[in-house]
Amino acid sequence: KGNGMIGNIYSMGLALQALEATRKFYAPRKWDCAQAFSVVFAHDYQQPMAIAQVLPALVGTSYLDVAGLDCAATKGVSPNRQLPLSPTLGTHGIPRAPIQVHYSITNTLQGKHFHYSTTVTVPSGSTLLQVMEVAAEENPQTFSFQTEQTSWGPYVTSIHGLAASTEDRTYWQFLSAGDALDEGVGMYKPHAGEHIQAVFSTY
């Protein structure tokens, strides 16, 4: 993309591993290592799968190096545990300011076409999934949705009763200002006044 991003933020970990592991014998063209890593450094990774894929690249290794891993050296090492934050409180227990997020769902691809919009109020820092949950609570007949849990977090399988299908190659795509979101609904945090579009799409 010219700004260091390789695919999207989810693919960066494996892409960096692959480029680092193969750079000695496979170099179709020069790539800007520092620029790519600056994208990683600037992103707040919280998704366990994304972290697991980007960490090896950050320490200059790849999953290929697992065969030579010294397991004895990791004895006694345990991650720090932190208590989860309240969904309505910030890091110091201060209530988070409410924001309004515009949310719309659109289907012009299959069956009876529809387009619905709403504006919901959520605490700042809320995820898109929380925005969708509030919309569904306020108007379940229109904005109800279903998800399935994956190793990358919740994946939206159905909105307004219209389900994605691998056979039809359809899915629910989430956009902001016409651009696809670079994070999933469980991680993306809309800003005040942002318009999030869920569009039934094909690939």
From TrEMBL:
Positions of cyanocob(III)alamin binding: N8, Q53, Y155, V156, L181, Y203
The family this protein is said to belong to: Belongs to the eukaryotic cobalamin transport proteins family.
GO biological process, one term: cobalamin transport
Swiss-Prot/TrEMBL keywords: Cobalt, Cobalt transport, Ion transport, Secreted, Signal, Transport
Molecular function per GO: cobalamin binding
Pfam families, per database record: Cobalamin_bind, DUF4430
Name recorded for this polypeptide: IF factor
GO CC annotation terms, alphabetical: extracellular space
Domain Transcobalamin-like C-terminal: 125-197
Compartmental location: Secreted
UniProt superkingdom: Eukaryota
Xref: Gene3D superfamilies: 1.50.10.20, 2.170.130.30
